[in-house]
Design brief:
Elements: H1 3-8, H2 19-51, H3 67-77, H4 88-104, E1 118-120, E2 123-125, H5 135-156, H6 160-191, H7 196-201, H8 208-211, H9 213-226, H10 238-241, H11 251-276, H12 284-289, H13 298-320, H14 326-356, H15 361-402
Antiparallel strand pairs: 1-2
Length: 454
């Protein structure tokens, strides 16, 4: 393993801060999330209004910048209604279970270098609350706990639509966390660590978005599904669930669900920045001609700028893409993301194993290209035989469709399948030959016999 990575895994600089500095860091992490949530809510309403040629919020504060704060005050002052059939204890605890874990993941995210780069009231410290050798597993565990708040909220409401929303959230979490974990594993193989500070240090020469583009794309899709944002907002689909899991909630409890959604947006964005976009490191052109770009307080600026760009991506997706169907959501998770992430993880593990054996990069490229060509050739042969086998079946099905359809063949009437036509109705003129028949006219006879017009 690279000695630089072993040095980066030294976490002895953490845990030495005095208690008052730990409190300051914890308050800063909480304030950072809250302020970012307030900004992201206003940004979402402003950007979507701009995309739809509307004005957006423009009443509260300058340019409507205090709209999200006004919404929070309004929700806290509204009447708090508790459903009669609800399980009271779980009904009240569900918003807390959903909101609290959303704040916990930020504790291991580095805002700057791991060394004592800054000083707060004369005390040198790191720009990170703490770090763990298994920090990414901690983030995965915390994110999984937050989903249970949605599931419990749907179950405890005692209503049908919230229950459906909770079940959708559970299925969506299981479907997309598997692919997310595989995307994380590729990063662990390249960085040699699960520590967030070590992962950022491993991207000193090249960001992982360049080395692991497939893992980055998989995580970008799964993080949208994890936070239940459009176009994957199935648990709170207003069109068919009337609000989803939070239908029976109001006042401050509804505000906590809304807060948890936006805090989770910020959390998955900072995780994406840490794993794939170089973390607190300055972008490539800036870091080359400015040696001090990654020192002092500047790393926090680059980190926040990357997070804001990813939050804009969330808003962009919501204002652009329509909501997918639930079967499309499950198909994407189980039939596309999971197989692709597992195959990509095996490929990354193979490359890393060959690199550890000191095999030249050109030879690795040849091996990988040969394996890919062999798989493509095998799939081509399988498809060719499948087409030959399916051709007679398709011809037989076409011949069956071309025949006359008997709706009473099974003893009771059945509707025709696509491609089948009902036999013509007896004593009924074709559509093109129908005409208006005047009462008492010559065509009013029955069975060829004229009537007296009665």
């Amino acid at each position: 393993m690279n000695p630089a990575l072993l040095a980066a895994e030294d976490l002895s600089m953490f845990g030495r801060d005095p208690w008052w500095l730990v409190v300051i860091k914890a308050v800063f992490c909480f304030a950072f999330l809250m302020v970012t949530v307030l900004i992201s809510i206003v940004m979402e309403r402003k950007v979507v209004a701009w995309m739809q040629l509307r004005i957006g919020p423009n009443r509260h504060g300058p340019w409507g910048m205090l709209q999200s704060l006004a919404d929070g005050v309004k929700l806290m002052l509204k009447e708090d209604v508790v459903v009669k059939r609800a399980d009271k204890v779980v009904y009240v605890l569900a918003p807390i279970v959903s909101a609290v874990p959303a704040f916990m993941a930020i504790a291991v995210i580095p805002f700057g270098p791991a060394g004592n780069e800054i000083s707060i009231f004369g005390q040198p410290t790191t720009m990170q609350l703490t770090d763990l050798p298994i920090a990414m597993l901690y983030i995965l565990a915390v994110a999984s706990v937050g989903i249970y708040g949605i599931v419990l909220a749907g179950w405890s409401s005692g209503s049908t639509y919230p229950l459906l929303g909770g079940l959708r959230a559970c299925a969506q979490m299981i479907s997309y966390e598997i692919a997310m974990g595989a995307a994380f594993a590729s990063v662990f193989l390249y960085s040699g660590s699960m520590s967030t500070s070590a992962i950022v240090e491993a991207q000193a020469d090249r960001w992982f978005v360049v080395l692991l583009p497939v893992s980055f794309l998989i995580y970008m899709v799964t993080m949208v599904g994890e936070v239940n944002r459009a176009p994957f907002d199935m648990p709170e689909s207003e069109g068919d669930l009337v609000g989803g899991f939070n239908t029976e909630y109001s006042s401050i409890k509804f505000a906590m669900f809304m807060l948890a959604e936006y805090v989770n947006m910020v959390t998955v964005s900072v995780v994406s920045v840490t794993l794939f976009l170089g973390g607190w490191r300055a972008p490539y052109p800036i870091s080359t001609f400015w040696p001090g770009a990654n020192h002092g307080w500047w790393p926090m600026l680059w980190f926040v700028a990357k997070v804001v760009l990813l939050l804009f991506l969330f808003v962009w997706l919501r204002g652009t893409l329509p909501r997918v169907r639930y079967d499309q959501l499950m198909k994407l998770g189980w039939k596309v993301l999971i197989p692709v992430s597992v195959v990509w993880l095996m490929l990354v593990a193979t490359v890393r194993a060959l690199r550890n054996q000191n095999i030249a990069f050109q030879s690795i490229v040849l091996y990988v290209a040969g394996a890919v060509l062999a798989v493509l050739l095998l799939s081509f042969v399988v498809d060719m035989f499948r087409e030959r086998r399916a051709k007679p079946e398709a011809e037989a099905a076409e011949a069956a469709k071309s025949g006359e359809f008997d709706p009473m063949a099974g003893g009771f009437p059945v509707p025709p399948l696509p491609g089948q036509t009902l036999p013509p109705v007896p004593r009924r003129r074709p559509r093109g030959e129908r005409q208006l028949i005047v009462s008492g006219g010559p065509d009013t006879g029955s069975d060829g016999k004229e009537t007296d017009g009665v």
